[in-house]
Amino acid sequence: MSRLLDDRVFNKETLLDSTVNLVPFAILMFFLVLYVVATPEGWKDGSYYSIYMLTLIISMIWGLLHLTYATAKRI
User: Fold this and answer.
1) Over the stretch 32-70, which tens digit does the pLDDT of each residue have?
2) I need a surface site. Which of 17, 21, 44, 66 has the fewest CB within 10 A?
3) Helix count and strand count (H, E) for the chain
4) What's the helix, strand, coil split of the chain in %, to 5?
5) Which residues of the chain form beta strands (DSSP E)?
């Protein structure tokens, strides 16, 4: 393996190891889109439940991406 690939954060092996997190990311994105499209309470009143649910889903997506990057950086 060349020295250039060893210095980068995402080399071939790291990308293969990180693809495991694509399935939970796809599931979270599905629920995010589903919740935005079919919100039970509607968006007109800006209810706290809608904001809370979006905050939970987006924070899980951010946490998964952050964890994936931190793990790939340490591998």
Assistant:
1) 898 888 876 666 666 777 788 889 999 999 999 999 888
2) 44
3) 4, 0
4) 75, 0, 25
5) none
